[in-house]
Design a protein that fits this description.
The structure is a homotrimer of 252-residue chains. Chain A is of the alpha+beta class. In chain A, a hairpin with a 2-residue loop joins β11 and β12. At the A-B interface, β1 and β2 of A face α1 of B.
């Protein structure tokens, strides 16, 4: 039933390759697809945001999301069955917004004994020892042998921002390779023609080409949230903005 | 007929993962292969050069190349049928040198309504909304339902350099991870035993080991153009050269 | 018999994409899996260490490992048959620790004429011209047509460190994205409760959460060697440690 296994982590290079070895050794029929391995280290919110904006573009997929500052602690390893997917993740909220949106059916805790399929149980790399074999078994259809159904999972709110009068305080959830600053401010809560950021006027436009090259702009990007950009430039660099920051915008 | 879908973009991490979701949802039989996602942002020439030096090593492939500073403007989305491949790309010249070399048969404009297969049409991420579904349909063989044949496509010249007397002015089209400076100067136009660059003599040799470790050298690299290197060192860093620059070489 | 082809290189982006084209053109049935392409340029020891810590998690795999400062010299191109795998690599020791551990059966030199399958023979990119077609033929089962059995291969010792009295001098073989400093000091040779590094006391613990956030720690990581970390921080950055360095630890 499930064929595709997606991987979204903060692991960078190498570690995901080992996970693929584990997955393919157990389930050679799996198609493993990388979504992203450059989530900012231990930024669970960013991982949750990127998963939320990618999971639904896949079909019949097992989504593995591992940004896991709690590895080696008592935090649970989860398998969450939703209407269309299985999510495999640490119980820190990373999979919650996606699973909730798709429709949670059952929440399971994965038993650490699943690591017997790998032959290793480290305290630092559950991506290899727990989450990879779990994904492989989800593809094979017998993950549930290593699972116990539990009642609940950690929640995480992607869209916590404040709008007070003319002031918006929202979060930078992603800075992409072009220096586009992706915020968590949803289109539905934007009711303005321009913003002021650090005293600079930034028009809200439809597309990059609505301003001159080198000019700043705001638009509703492909995440359906507010993005700040410089046309053919790098907003994040010019304004020294990092992923994870809170920013303040004025609407006048 | 086509099975492999290659991706070459300036998207970095994450966005290509979403494209893979779209492609595999429409054409689960596709084999998606990454060529490169670290093209310098919006450097169409570099994208064209890297595509030109990789497309022919694949068989039965749909090549998707998206370096797209004009996304959201009126620039067309193209599907180009050539002797052996289909190229899917914005109409900015990125696919032209490759398509021309392989032999252009038909040039089509992709209708934006193809985004109905994704359920999204952003102004910023046509990789997801237009090019990915187009690639998937090319694999399935019914891309042409969403296409209209047009007469022409934007051209782009990879090998525009000047040779005047003893002076060569060529472009740095790629700086690789080793700091090798890859130029667009073709082997066929090189008729020298050594070059002078910023006053330094650089011998033209067959292979790195023809000079001592730490010494500069020039050779005809795997792109069949001139490359400048330091044996076991980093030429680009030492001489502060960036991709996209024009450089001047003397032949004495 | 072999279906998976793994790639481990210091090539960064782009070059591995070309290798995949070559492999899939010759052996469309191959499943190509990236282990890592960000080995520190020309750091053969790091390549060997990462291969040694990943190869066994795959089944029925052809492992291609190319960190190759000697490309274009007389160094041999090898195919090594072991109990469970085929290793394809330059003869510089990179594949030796893995092949030795799995059990070497036959060592072959690959003839450069194998490049006729690619139609190119550069002096700089044997990943494309030699190692990729070799991997594809290993999948197809007829690599041996292009091979001659030889008696021996270059050796490489992963675990060369010195323990003299209370002083340990070992090597940093990998710095991961979190700034964890992975050394080559094996668990079996560790007999301490704490280390002193540059005068700072670092406790040996089971897992990150055994110390407070921001505090340094040492543990036996997923490589089964000593790692130095800062909980939710970046040890390598704080202590300015680079991969390849030798470090000195005191046990008091």
């Amino acid at each position: 039933m499930y064929e595709v296994v997606t991987l979204l982590t903060d692991f960078g290079d190498f570690y995901p390759g080992v996970m693929k070895g584990v997955i393919l050794s157990i389930a050679p029929e799996a198609k493993v697809v990388d979504i992203c391995h450059s989530v900012e280290p231990q930024n669970v919110l960013q991982g949750a945001f990127l998963l939320y904006n990618s999971y639904r573009f896949f079909k019949n997929a097992v989504h593995v999301a591992v940004v896991d500052p709690g590895v080696g602690t008592e935090r649970k390893a989860l398998a969450v069955k939703t209407k269309n997917y299985v999510f495999i993740a640490p119980d820190n909220g990373i999979a919650y917004p996606s699973a909730y949106e798709d429709g949670i059916k059952n929440i399971y805790e994965i038993d650490l004994s699943i690591s017997e399929l790998v032959g290793e149980l480290s305290t630092t790399f559950h991506g290899r020892d727990i989450f990879a074999p779990a994904a492989a078994l989800a593809v094979k259809g017998n993950l549930w042998d290593y699972c116990e159904e539990i009642g609940d999972m950690e929640k995480l709110e992607l869209f916590d921002y404040e709008i007070q009068g003319n002031t918006i305080r929202c979060k930078v959830v992603f800075v992409d390779r072009f220096g586009n600053v992706v915020t968590n401010l949803r289109a539905r809560d934007i009711n303005a023609k321009r913003f002021y950021f650090k005293g600079i006027e930034i028009p809200l436009v439809k597309t990059y080409s609505n301003v001159e090259i080198g000019e700043p702009l705001a638009l509703i990007g492909s995440f359906e949230t507010l993005e700040l950009s410089i046309r053919n430039g790098n907003f994040a660099e010019v304004f020294d903005i990092k992923s994870g920051e809170e920013i303040e915008l004025e609407v006048l």
